[in-house]
């Protein structure tokens, strides 16, 4: 891919990250505020973010593509659950067609950002290329669209005996392109979306695949195609059909989540019934597919076409629910003394949380710790001017939230452009009871709770993980509640203000 680079290092808006969030932010910005200049900086060498990073077998979306794709660019494929390469191509095509690539510079990692109140500007330090050459950007606004986990360092559970293992050890985040697992015994450690994707993808060529989990997850079989959605798209124009299917699937996903939270016992029983029908064994389901927690206490995992259940039913894969003692020469020894023999072990043990792509922030030279801030509408940090961040939902497709955030940021930027103010800062009055912004019991969320901005129980400082409530509150948000607007001239010394008059 060519190394497109913006001509200027001084822009109105600097967007950090060229994945789903960054492309969506850039599109909304040039759609709604075409008079503003912007640049996109991306630490990786290509478009895609997560979908460029993960290249393991079977990598795919964990939700339907109609809600994952952008509302402004229809998905034209037939499948509802699609592979990572197709998503990556979709993102690159979107960026190219919208002219976003022309504003994007790759191999450019943001190291730090410092705000000057007198100048009403961010000075952003970046490291460029493999050699890490230092350069700077200046921006009136910085939009961090870099996700919420560490691309360079996955979670390490600290397994004992790794050096004793004589086979091949792989982490999905760094999958080697030349790995050949054909005819080999494979153990996949984990029970989340990555493990549930890998097991059926590896099973056809491996001698056998074992999914080794400490705790079961809820797994829901979902069709790869959406017959109703495809029928809708045949009778409506592309954009209208796409939005209709997107709305349908959003309502269904929202309804499933609400049912799980309000009727956990009934939904757990329903998931168990489906798993038993798919696997053909109550014993296997009760031991390996029945979690000790309620549905959606942790993320619900999707099995397209029931491929995981099919692999277990056919005997090409199996599941072990046990604790690990240590790695040994020929595999993994469990706490009960058994050894799972393996030629290849995949440690699908999860992610490490990281905010703002690892960049540090300061305001007028004072360091900012995001965990000591409150999140204004899950979009800005209290006490930090002219900066936004973008996260997606945990219980719905990422884009459902990221597009909502992009549109809110554009509203704020539009007011800045028209009002005569040049600075807007979220200000929290008082110290209400708080919780981490991402309120879910998943392992990587728990491990990173101490890094997260805080959320309160009421808007504008809440994020409900409820797309209906969030959309109502965000799309109609008054921009005075929780925000303080000002001009840099109000903060300059009198002599300097007079000199510039």
Automatic annotation (TrEMBL):
- InterPro entries with a match to the protein in the record: FAD-binding_MO, FAD/NAD-bd_sf, Flavin_mOase-like
Q: Which UniProt keywords apply?
A: FAD, Flavoprotein, Monooxygenase, NADP, Oxidoreductase
What's this protein's family per the entry?
A: Belongs to the FAD-binding monooxygenase family.
Pfam families assigned: FMO-like, NAD_binding_8
Molecular function via GO: flavin adenine dinucleotide binding; N,N-dimethylaniline monooxygenase activity; NADP binding
Q: Which cofactor does it need?
A: FAD
Name listed for the protein in its UniProt record: NAD(P)/FAD-dependent oxidoreductase
Report the Gene3D superfamilies cross-referenced here. FAD/NAD(P)-binding domain
